[in-house]
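Fold it.
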Amino acid sequence: MSSTRYLEIAEELGRELDGCTPGTRVASEHEITTRFGVGRATARAAVQELERRLVVRRVQGSGTYVNRRIDYVISHRRPPSWTATVTAAGAKPRALVKDVDQIPLPDDRAARLARPAGSLAHRVIREFYIDDLLASWVHEWIPVDLVPDLDLALHAVDSIDLVLRQMGRVSPVRAWCRVSLDVPPSEVLRGLRMEASQPAWLVESASRDASSGQLLMCSDSWTRADAVRVVVELQDDPGLDDPGLDDPELRDDTAPRAPVVEEER
């Protein structure tokens, strides 16, 4: 058996899968073994090659599916909303609330929201889907005084951005963002049904009100790299004309800040 046979099989399967609807189940390793007359190891290598090319994605305990990877664009000009961003990419978003509770803000989250440590906040844990495929596992923190009945509102709508606009009477914009690629902790790996060695996008962010500058929420979002390509778009901001604003010693921390987006590579 040629050592490149798995590549030939991957090429043929890739051509067949091109144009298939995202989420279509892919032939199992057993079916590939039978069809091409190869061993299980060769069939597995062919599927792994398709996975490396992001043509398919494997979900633990479920199977292998035709993949669709969208651009998830982070920009000052776009609302900090999963629903809006995925919709703009031409895909269908969906969110599933796993848990909502009220807890005292940990020190690091309190610092992100410019609140005293221990202030009461909603902690929301959600799964996000793209075209009905699980894509992201998200923790979000929103001060309770902004939207006291957030848990009830999330039974009616998927978008926290929309809840803040309608119930909080604010206009969320991105205040800060950091993007990195890393292997998630075990809790997230289980939630996203990923292999232990698979990296994912980590997007840490905070949002503020466009008018008052008040910080509204912060979040940590782990997203499967086979589901999205994170694209960070940076624009010149006229509010940063003075180079001294980049110096923490010269910055007026009492004034609303212009949004800053950081990208880690």
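The first helix runs from residue 5 to 17.
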